[in-house]
Amino acid sequence: xxxxxxxxxxxxxxxxxxxxxxxxxxxxxxxxxxxxxxxxxxxxxxxxxxxxxxxxxxxxxxxxxxxxxxxxxxxxxxxxxxxxxxxxxxxxxxxxxxxxxxxxxxxxxxxxxxxxxxxxxxxxxxxxxxxxxxxxxxxxxxxxxxxxxxxxxxxxxxxxxxxxxxxxxxxxxxxxxxxxxxxxxxxxxxxxxxxxxxxxxxxxxxxxxxxxxxxxxxxxxxxxxxxxxxxxxxxxxxxxxxxxxxxxxxxxxxxxxxxxxxxxxxxxxxxxxxxxxxxxxxxxxxxxxxxxxxxxxxxxxxxxxxxxxxxxxxxxxxxxxxxxxxxxxxxxxxxxxxxxxxxxxxxxxxxxxxxxxxxxxxxxxxxxxxxxxxxxxxxxxxxxxxxxxxxxxxxxxxxxxxxxxxxxxxxxxxxxxxxxxxxxxxxxxxxxxxxxxxxxxxxxxxxxxxxxxxxxxxxxxxxxxxxxxxxxxxxxxxxxxxxxxxxxxxxxxxxxxxxxxxxxxxxxxxxxxxxxxxxxxxxxxxxxxxxxxxxxxxxxxxxxxxxxxxxxxxxxxxxxxxxxxxxxxxxxxxxxxxxxxxxxxxxxxxxxxxxxxxxxxxxxxxxxxxxxxxxxxxxxxxxxxxxxxxxxxxxxxxxxxxxxxxxxxxxxxxxxxxxxxxxxxxxxxxxxxxxxxxxxxxxxxxxxxxxxxxxxxxxxxxxxxxxxxxxxxxxxxxxxxxxxxxxxxxxxxxxxxxxxxxxxxxxxxxxxxxxxxxxxxxxxxxxxxxxxxxxxxxxxxxxxxxxxxxxxxxxxxxxxxxxxxxx
Amino acid sequence: xxxxxxxxxxxxxxxxxxxxxxxxxxxxxxxxxxxxxxxxxxxxxxxxxxxxxxxxxxxxxxxxxxxxxxxxxxxxxxxxxxxxxxxxxxxxxxxxxxxxxxxxxxxxxxxxxxxxxxxxxxxxxxxxxxxxxxxxxxxxxxxxxxxxxxxxxxxxxxxxxxxxxxxxxxxxxxxxxxxxxxxxxxxxxxxxxxxxxxxxxxxxxxxxxxxxxxxxxxxxxxxxxxxxxxxxxxxxxxxxxxxxxxxxxxxxxxxxxxxxxxxxxxxxxxxxxxxxxxxxxxxxxxxxxxxxxxxxxxxxxxxxxxxxxxxxxxxxxxxxxxxxxxxxxxxxxxxxxxxxxxxxxxxxxxxxxxxxxxxxxxxxxxxxxxxxxxxxxxxxxxxxxxxxxxxxxxxxxxxxxxxxxxxxxxxxxxxxxxxxxxxxxxxxxxxxxxxxxxxxxxxxxxxxxxxxxxxxxxxxxxxxxxxxxxx
Lengths: 807, 471
Description:
The structure holds two protein chains of two kinds. By secondary structure, chain A is mainly α. Chain A is built from 35 helices and six strands. Among the domains of chain A are: 17-112, Cytochrome Bc1 Complex, Chain D, domain 2 (Orthogonal Bundle), CATH 1.10.760; 253-353 and 469-532, no CATH class; 356-459, no CATH class; 727-806. In chain A, the strands form three sheets. A two-stranded antiparallel ribbon of chain A has the order 1-2. In chain A, strands 3-4 form a two-stranded antiparallel ribbon. In chain A, helix 31 crosses helix 34 (786-798) and helix 33 (766-783) crosses helix 34. Chain B has helices at 5-11, 69-73, 122-125, 144-153, 163-171, 228-247, 253-276, 283-288, 297-311, 336-360, 426-436, 465-469, and strands at residues 49-55, 107-110, 115-118, 131-137, 181-184, 208-209, 316-321, 367-373, 376-377, 389-390, 394-400, 407-409, 411-412, 419-421, 445-448, 451-454.
């Protein structure tokens, strides 16, 4: 580790960071105490609306002893440690009590500014890049990071070696390991811009969209099914998935990316691709699945639209304001319903990707439906006489009561007869298709065959429709929006019109659209209000998400919460610089990746660490990370040489065995319809089906999100079931055997090295070759089988930490 | 990723404890860092463990634990539109046009308390003096999946943590080598695995599904075709190279934890099969649970297994009875008699045995046994021979875990249509269960989406522990 010369500290304008705890604490007081001890009321003479008033206290004495919560009346009251306990008849939540304790212990300071001047609600500042004249500083990012490291008396780690760099960069941008050849060639590239070339090559590859598309899909709670008991398919949800992957691969500017998702239909009505962006509102958990409560369903759908929009694009949790003014953030309930009014006219629709094809598809489908009805009728007419004859024959020997029950017309059956027919006794008398098939005459067999032929020709070449899910407005007029008092949707409060969050400047959306409008243009206004440099959150939120994707943690540790409850940024100036730079570079995500990845900070070794900064907030080294579930599966397929790189299309359903499918809702033949083309089973994980009501074992143990709510950051757990899955799971065994088969075809002395290159992208060391030789010998001795021994070697490699972690 | 070294090490045991890690952590105060280390309750706990018998699909309350002589008397008669106003049903097209339907089963008093139970549950009836029957449950979800989510997680929409997850989040686990929260079912349920999901809590708090057979946990067994000796060799190869890899990187708690998790996985391969091996149980015990009898064998095994898990310190066990691909309470839509004869027949004897057995072993005091489901069934007839879904008033019961038996709490109206006295919703029930386990539902919180979330959301104000424990 080497030391960078100490340079003058530059000022750290931690905007709002010092205010985080006071703001939170005062918000707790505001939400829970102000009714009796606020501006308008002072029971027992106590007001808690300023520090002076709290120190002065009421008739019982001072409410707060700064620096000592345990001596403070306020703390004793809220912990119920002394009378009077507060608030009367209830308890604060544990987290809030803890906030109060920390706040008093740290001096009980009131926030310097009002909540509306909270740092994240101010536009990113133009900040000067710290002038640090050292070689380590390759980019402005380095200057910001180094300045903070210096300030904290921390050292940066040395640059990682070339192998580590290419593996890191390839996983970060592609979610896959580099091939051994790619690694070898990068290590051997002596040109001065070898690393820049590497990053450019990776960004240009379509693998990039597949990896970063998955991050976005997590965020927008993407799934291929709707959830609940029936978990039905969201037909053509995958079109949105492909839209995201394509948008990222073509480096669609982020402001445009946002606009198309919120209001593609209103902003770009002639661009089918742009309108498909609104599919974002269709790929979430369908909140309209509750049975026979359509009015409630509508409320849930709109709630999902509002919550998802604000959390994904603005990094704000507005959900609290559905029921009451936000306790912590300056978001009144009125603002929430004003935002809801924007979505009030929105309904689901189908986007015709190519007009004539889509119309043609609809027409063909329409005719097919009519033909199918006739075919069904024909089948019934052929089968019925046989069914009756077979039943009569069986009933001849049945008990009289049962026979009578069967022979009575359905509606005329008595309850006992119903039970007889539908119960266990009756089950033996049901006539199945196979019984009938066996009894058919030659002529009828041929008639059925003829029908089968017609069916085959009707469905040969059957393809999914050229349509994409999306939303649009029911028309230029919107239903009214009323505030729901206490969140009770059955009650009607004030009528509100569409508008923007007042804390971000507010503003109304015109209620009357232009005379020629076909929609209300409310979402257009929202999209334009969000996707602009003037919005203080949009760019910041996105650059932070990208930063998190590279470093494991964002500069703001709570990537979808920029409110008072969220974490303050570790490097506020850097965050603002990145946000401004992002906008200046035309909202290009690829340029943003490049800017980040070319920095010295990104190129640091992951070896290091400091007791002073155990969480590595200040980035004195790179954060080692575990692969995500998709990366694990894809890397195993790549190692086995089985990965099918085909892109896009309907979701792939790979085979799972009964044990793995245990608990899936319904009959697996309906719920898990395995893709018939086996070559599809080894495609990249982003193309596998994501059912809401069922996650595959690999997805479940390795922390894949469940798709019920936006997932801004995945957990990275280390739990024993992961080892079981990786060690004993069917998938590992299959891929191990595949690679073992390939190894067998190589000359014996090359096998170990080849295995290493396939799985770990590098040749083995002597020590490793020795360990592998020992293992192969031991395994061969036990089983007497060379293929089995090689498969064990590969299984071992797939379980190594080196395989599972990125340095 | 950003945890202390010790925390990460202990996390390696997440899901199944941290036994193998103790050598790495000598002198460490583990309880602060292992998410599943036993944690002190908020208040004195009545129950250490919970066995929640979830009758999934909808059990008719008026045919089991809520006798309604007036309903029987007026069976076949119409009901006034006023009485069914606001009632939502699933298959009964218009409740005001449906007729009342009395129970085809007889009720009789049991035990010293003389509480009436239907003949369908006559074995459970014999244990009534240990049971507190709650006849006044209600909810507003009248379809299966939303109602199951509601009872388990407090929301009709999936995605929130279930009761079992909250319980082990709050209390941790007594056994390091078995899951803290075990789920058993008949396979396919109407809610899917989301009913026992940890929702927004960390993965470690997820319910672990026990399948049948000697290796109840998925991927627990060494793969077929790989011998134990081979497995050992491969594991030692992994361990050897992982330690080389670690040495080259200096201290890294995540990597160490991963190494340890393989040791743990290996050890679990013996502890879980031991827990589910009932061959050492006496014939008398097996007979008590109805093991060996066609109808009761499966559910009997599950109940016996639940007792064995409680003995081994497992905190929360939930058993789902009924499936939507086979034997199903919900067949009561068209076949009340058949479905309830079948499902009660499957569960009556094993449940009674569980209570008897727990009591005999002195475990009932510390084990809360809960019987319930997502809703009851209409006192109105659906078609000729059925009952529809009915969440507006239905029964559940609790025994053990400090609960005073031989009492009835709450009531429904004369027909069993609506809970009228001491009406409790899902949140009240869940708050009460947490309280019996020693937790305050207001204090058991987790910060998510900017809010301190809790199982009971903003509800649970009618928690009724005092009534249950009889103080």
